[in-house]
Structures are given as C-alpha cells and as structure tokens.
Design goal:
heterodimer; A: about 475 residues; alpha/beta; four-stranded antiparallel sheet; 25 strands; B: about 375 residues; five-stranded mixed sheet; four-stranded mixed sheet; 12 helices; about 35% helix
Chain lengths: ~475, ~375
C-alpha cells in the first residue's frame, strides 16, 4: 500500500497527513495505491544502528498513480516485478506495519493481513495498557491514537459504539480512571461515545484452567477481546507486551497470586481463557531501557504488530528488537510452533535492530541492586521510585530483595535489605531480623530509610532514632 | 556583495574542537582580506550540531560570540550538507558592510556506523530512515534510475571519482592530498549500495571554511546567489533523474549574473556521490539531459578540459565536512580566480560556479563568482 494525501480540488499531493489544502482550501482525501511494481532496487552493504544486518535490499516501489515508496526487504526482487504482501494462511501469523504518519492505516493494514473480521453484533472489549497516570508521549501506556484508530475501524465495520467497551485497571495501588484520563484514552472514549470501565471493580468470574484458579474479568469471558498493549521493555519480565497486558484482566488478588506463583504456567493458562482474542501490539512509540516507569524511555519504533496469538506478537517483538524471549512467552504459544510463524508485511530480518534492554537486577541507583523473588510490579515500581530519588548519593552497595520466595541464606547475605510487605512477611516466617522497608511506610520516609541504609557502613540498619528522625522530616515537609 | 577573503582548515581527521576549527579558518580569511575582527559587522555560521561528536553544543551563535568576542548580529542557518551555501546566500541578503560567513563540522568522531546514522538524520524519518535509506542508498536509487534512463555506466561514475582524486592529490587542504588513487582501485572498490561503490561516495571529514563578504568593491563579485528548496524525499519528485532545486537555483543565478551556463569557466559541484556530479552537469545546464556521460568521457570537466569541475578534489576527495563544504567551494573558486592554486591552477577564469546541496537534491544553493577589476 502506498499512501498519499491528495486535494480533491487541485490534486496537490502530500506525503504527510493534512486535513485541508492550504492552496485552494479544497478537501483532502487519501490516495491509496494497491497495484505496485518494483521500479528500482539497491542492495545496501553498510550497516547503521537501525539497520545492522547487511546486506539488505531497498525496493523503489511505484503504484498505479505514479506514487513511489522505498521499502526495505531481505527478499530478492527484479525491476518490473509486481509487489504484493501475502495474507495469513494460518493462525500462527504475525503482521507488522510500519507507521507512515498514519496510525489508523497501519493498524488497518496489519489487521487485514491477519484476515481480521468482526460481526456487526459482536460485543467487544478493547483492553489497552494503562498501568499508571502518565502522559501519552512517555509510552508507558497505549497510545491514545491507537485506541482511536481501533474504535474507528470497528465502527467502520458496522459495530455500534454501544457494543464497544474499553476496560483496564492500573497497577495495584493506582487509580484506573485517573490513569486513563492522563493517558489521553479517556478523551478518546468520550469522543467516540464508548464506555470506559475500571476492571478492578469487577465483576469477576472464577475460572480454572490447566489446574490454575483465576478470577477473570467477566466481560473478557463474554466479549471478543482486542488486546492492545504498548510494547515495552520491563525490568521484571524482560518485556511487557500482549501477555503481560492480559494479567490485568484478573482481579487484584488473582494478579498477586500469579506473580507470586508459577508465573510462566499461570500466564500460559491465562492466555487460553478468553473466548476469542485479537492482539494489536502498539509499538508506535514503544519503550526501551529500564522500563516501564523510572528509567524507561520512548523508543520511537513506528511499528504496529497484529496476531490472533498474544505470545506470537511478544516473541516477534523480542526477535525484532533483539531481546531474549522470556520463559513465559515461550510457554504461552498455545501449541503453535514459533519456528513456523508466518511473518506478514515485513520480513523479520529486515526489521531487526537492538534497543536498550531492561536489566533485572538494576535500579536507577548504581549502588542499589535488586533481586526479585516474585515480587509484584507495584512493589518493584515503588522501589525504583525510591531509589531514583537518591541518584548521585554514593554509598556502599546494598542488595534489596523483594517478593517472598527467598531463603534464609539469601536474607543473611552481605548488606541485604528487604523491601515490600511480602518480603517483610517472609522475614517474619524465617525469624530473621534484617533492615526492611514496608509498603505502608510513606514515600518520603522510604527514601530517608533507603538513604540511611545506603550510607551505613557494615550491616545496614534502621534504628528507632532513624524512625523518629524520618517522622520529624515528614512532618517538616508537610509544614514547609 | 564582494568576496574580500577566504580561509579554510585542512579537511581531515583532526581532533580540534569546532571552536578551534572556526578560529583557524576565520584567521586565514581575515588575513586574506587584510582585515581584523573589528571590521566584522555580522556573522553567519552554519553547523549541523551533530550529536555524535560529543560536543553537545547547540547554541552556535553564542559560541561564535564567545569565540570572536563580538557583540554583533549572528545567525545560524543550517541545511546539513547545504549549510555552507545556505549561510552564504543568507549573508548575501544582509545589509552589513563586512560579514563573516563560516561553516564548520566535526563529524569524524565515532565509528562509521554512528556517523552513517548521524548523516541519515537528514533523510525523511518515516519513509526513508525506517526503510534503511542511508545516504548512499538514497543516491543509489537515483543513480540507478538515471543510468537506466540515459545509459550512463558505472565506468562513467568511476571516471568522476578518478578525476576528483587526481585533483585532490594536488590540493594541500584535501583529505586525499598526495594520496594516489587509481582507476583500477576505484573500479574494484566494494559495492556500498548498488550500483554505488565505496569510491563513488564522498568522505566524511572534519573541517571549517570561512569567507568574508563585503560591500567594498574587490576583484571578486558575487554575481549570482540563489537558493531553492525542493522536497526532502527524492522519490517524491516526478523525475528522480533531475533535481529541480538545482535547475531553479542555477537559472536564477545565471539570470542575476546576466550569463548562461556556457560562460562558466570553472565549477565546484556537490559531488557527494559521483552520480550527483553527473546529474548536476545537466541540471546546471553544462550539457543537455542525458549527455553528462559524454562530458566525463571526453575529459571536458578535467582540470585541463574546457570546463574544469571540482579542481579542489570535490567532496569526493577533498572531503565533505557537511556544513563547511559550501564555503570551501567558495574558497577554491576564489583561490583559482586569484591565481593561487599552484599545480591546480586553471587559466583565465572570469566566472566560477559553486553548487551546494543539502540532502538528496533538497536544498540547493548556487553561487556565481565573477572576476572584476578592483
């Protein structure tokens, strides 16, 4: 597909989206070329950071309107060849579409390639990723333009807006409505007269899948789920994509159990429970580095991915951005072989380049390391927020343990500190007295305690004097 | 306006900062003009302000003020590879008696992968960068269309490279000064983006160039100064084998000078790639469309030909320090008009032309310098 914006009155064309012709004030329509030939080819033998695998080919494509477009591919073509993009033959397929300034067209194209169809009377649940209150440019949450485009596509297919529900719950401890408003998605819902629901308020249905009991958002059991996560690196899970986004279809207590139990098995079971699912991986901006919150950064990937299978998208995302595919992704293919995945729209090799990874033991502070013993994301985020406040303060390295699956030997290690309620409870069970910071402690005190622990020589401790001092500082901060 | 002095650093891999490079080129230009900084009423500086060189220096107007200790109007047009020509065009429009125009670049500072990426930022982000259109690839697609349409060959491209290397061999300011490159080496060099080989591509180097423009009459008049900008992506043009911005700028500059292309005695052409030099012959009116191959085959543009092109060695072999390039072209023509080019001297020059391009045919400045009696 080659796209141009053309003035209906004077025929001027743009490669960028415009709404009115600034010459004749005429209306603009999209000119989409579909009969495409190869007009030129170059084989490139020099690498660059976004194109590290060489050699690759760039085709100069030309459509029936004379519009041209360069297209990178690893496949061999000849000048004069017809250029077409195949559609999915099986459910083991993932399509990718590069966004050329038009999110809607990219999503539409990626869905067409996987043969997406929907009945007009279908009830649909759009499940974006809105984990926390953050602006859309930060790429922590799904791009509101992506949600807008998906709603538009559904409406064009005849689905009434009353049949469409957008639902999400923020990370435990955050307010979904606040997060949805700040993300820009609430405005999209209002614009399209589509309802938004906070999943954490339920109702939930008890489901047992592969021996695992889950409390699942009831609407997800009854509707076609369009799973639309923002594709991100994640310090706990390597990536958070389609599979991770499904975890917030669970009741909060069920989510905790998932993280504290056998995550790989749990998420594999979760991926099977919805009646039907379509996944759209939103990498329009996407995130890299120590995501998602404190040190994650927008990666400007300009890509959309679509598949009927959540794991296939997550695996493709890992492959494209050269990240190791985590165990839970590999365990959740629902019987499909990753080796046989059809790549549509772009060949996988042509898309590959490295982004900054999330390192599991790193925190924003170089002297504070973390070991995750099945902590929940909310606890890890809290820790990263605390440690980010201390950047620049040097100390003696401490190792923070979170979650509850650690042994006595680990807890008695050199300069080990526990963080979070689960870790504190496990210390009680093990009858070990080491420094700990719980989740109920106010953020300002958490920072003060962490500062003390970092700068204490030898065994890090929080004394009663420290507790009094922190209370006074907290009070002072409120007065000031 | 007139040219009263020019200066430039050697183009190469030196470690000097942008500030030092600017100062060196400026000092030479001031000496050449027999002026000092007190005489300068305004400054136009061009730099890409690249990220990869570690300087992290965006406010080049302020840097220039600190460096030159001048509190005068300073402006900073930048059009990547066309920055120097754009700066000169802007300076020519300003109403000041003496204007210092400087172009500087410190691009050769990391591995080639990073530099390639830095330069690729001048390509269109969503259509070109995401599709791997590094600059050699952009120009390769254009070269291929040109060769298919007009029957030019890779041998013709090699002749352009060979000619420019021969000239650079004799230019002490060139990166390839006293470095012999044979036609066989050029033809055997690795393919970078088919049909372009390594020796079809210009060299990224560090350097600065400066010129002092004045209202006082000197022996070199800026008889024509034109700047036209076309679309960023080459594939948007109806005819990829001709860059319209060059045609428009050249015609405008000829008109200002009251001459035609036939009157030009020497030209510095933006040979970022050898194919661009051939296409430019046609767009500048040195020959008809499709006939550039004849000019290079019959030696018309050799240093001893009827119209010597890129006597400095061009971007190809003198080197291409992005925003400094356009002003270094003025340096070469000025030196030629002043009969100061030694082994490369072209006799009896009345009109010299400089064509400077930003992007793949996007931002084109054409300047015509005329020898006049002072």
């Amino acid at each position: 597909m080659i796209l141009r914006w053309i003035c209906e009155k004077c025929n001027k064309k743009w490669i960028y989206p415009v709404e009115k012709c600034a010459y004749c004030k005429g209306d603009i329509k999209k000119q989409i070329g579909t009969k495409i030939k190869v007009a030129g080819i170059t084989k490139v033998s020099i690498s660059s950071p976004m194109h590290p695998i060489i050699p690759y080919n760039i085709l100069l494509l030309q459509d029936e309107h004379g519009n041209r477009l360069p297209k990178k591919t690893m496949k061999e073509y000849k000048i004069g060849d017809t250029y077409t993009e195949e559609r999915a033959k099986t459910g083991n397929a993932v399509s990718t579409a590069k966004i050329k300034y038009d999110v809607y067209e990219a999503i539409k194209h990626s869905l067409e390639l996987i043969n997406f169809k929907v009945n007009k009377d279908e009830k649909i649940l759009i499940k974006p990723s809105i984990t926390t209150a953050a602006y859309s440019y930060q790429a922590v949450n799904t791009n509101p333009k992506t949600i807008d485009a998906i709603i538009k596509i559904l409406l064009e297919l005849g689905v009434p807006n009353t049949n469409i529900l957008v639902a999400e719950q923020a990370l435990i401890g955050s307010d979904a409505t606040d997060a949805c408003s700040k993300s820009g998605i609430m405005d999209i819902c209002k614009k399209n007269n589509v309802q938004f629901s906070d999943i954490s308020k339920g109702p939930f249905t008890d489901v047992e899948q592969d021996g695992i009991k889950l409390k699942v958002y009831s609407e997800a059991m009854n509707r076609l789920v369009i799973n639309v996560p923002v594709m991100k690196t994640n310090f706990q899970l390597t990536i958070s994509g389609c599979l991770e986004n499904l975890t917030r279809l669970l009741a909060p207590e069920s989510q905790r159990k998932l993280y504290q139990g056998d995550f790989d098995r749990g998420i594999a079971a979760l991926s099977k429970i919805t009646r039907k699912i379509i996944n759209v991986g939103d990498a329009s901006i996407g995130m890299q580095a120590q995501g998602p919150l404190t040190l994650g950064e927008p990666a400007f990937m300009s890509l959309m991915l679509a598949s009927e299978n959540a794991a296939i998208i997550d695996k493709a995302f890992c492959d494209i951005f050269m990240l190791p595919a985590p165990g839970y992704v590999l365990a959740s293919s629902n019987g499909l072989s990753f080796d046989k995945t059809e790549y549509l729209g772009n060949d996988l090799e042509s898309l590959k380049y490295s982004i900054k990874r999330a390192e599991p033991n790193e925190t924003p502070h170089t002297d504070i390391k973390v070991i995750d013993f099945k902590g929940c994301p909310a606890c890890l985020n809290m820790l990263n927020n605390v440690t980010s406040k201390l950047i620049g303060l040097r100390g003696e390295q401490i190792t923070v343990i979170i979650g509850s699956h650690f042994s006595e030997e680990t807890a008695r290690g050199n300069r080990v500190v526990a963080f979070g309620d689960c870790a504190a409870k496990q210390l009680e069970n093990l009858k070990i007295d080491i420094a700990k910071i719980d989740e109920k402690t106010e953020p300002i005190e958490q920072v003060l305690f962490m500062q003390k622990l970092l700068t204490t020589k030898g065994i890090p401790k929080i004394t009663n004097v420290d507790k009094v001092k922190s209370k006074m500082k907290k009070l002072l901060s409120k007065v000031m | 306006m007139y040219i009263s002095g020019v200066g430039m650093t050697k183009f190469g891999s030196q470690l000097e900062s942008s500030q030092e490079l600017i100062y060196e080129a400026t000092m030479e230009a001031l000496t050449d003009a027999n002026k000092n900084l007190d005489d300068i009423d305004a400054v136009v500086v061009s730099s890409s302000e690249t990220e990869c060189n570690g300087e992290r220096q965006r406010l080049f107007t302020g840097v220039m003020s600190s460096m030159l200790r001048k509190k005068v109007p300073i402006i900073n047009p930048t059009a990547v590879c066309g920055g120097g020509g754009s700066a000169l065009w802007a300076a020519n429009k300003l109403d000041y008696k003496n204007i210092l125009v400087v172009g500087v670049e410190r691009i050769l500072s990391k591995n080639s992968m990073k530099i390639t990426d830095e330069i690729m930022m001048a390509a269109e982000r969503m259509y070109e960068q995401t599709e791997g259109l590094v600059f050699p690839a952009q120009n390769a697609l254009v070269a291929q269309q040109y060769m298919m349409k007009y029957g030019a060959t890779t041998d013709d491209l090699a002749l352009v490279a060979f000619k420019n290397h021969q000239n650079a061999y004799k230019n002490p300011k060139a990166r390839f000064y006293k470095k012999e490159v044979t036609l066989k080496q050029i033809r055997k060099s690795p393919v970078v983006a088919s049909p372009l080989r390594l020796f079809d591509c210009s060299l990224s180097v560090n350097g600065a160039a400066a010129a002092i423009l004045t209202k006082e009459k000197t022996d070199i008049e800026i008889a024509g100064s034109s700047l036209y900008v076309d679309r960023i992506a080459t594939f948007e043009s109806a005819d990829m084998t001709s860059w319209e911005a060059t045609v428009l700028a050249a015609n405008d500059a000829y008109k200002q000078a009251g001459i035609t292309a036939n009157d030009i005695n020497i030209a510095e052409v933006h040979d970022a790639f050898t194919s661009v030099e051939l296409i430019s012959y046609e767009d500048l009116g040195f020959c008809k469309k499709g006939e550039a191959k004849k000019l290079i085959r019959n030696g018309h543009t050799n240093i001893d030909g009827k119209l010597p092109v890129n006597t400095s060695g061009g971007l190809k072999a003198k080197g291409h320090p992005i925003c400094a390039t356009g002003i270094s072209q003025i340096y070469e023509i000025t030196k030629q008009i002043h009969n100061q080019s030694n082994e490369r001297q072209v006799p009896n020059i009345k009109y010299g032309l400089a064509q400077n391009i930003g992007g793949a045919g996007s931002t084109v400045a054409v300047h015509i310098l005329k020898k006049v009696s002072s």
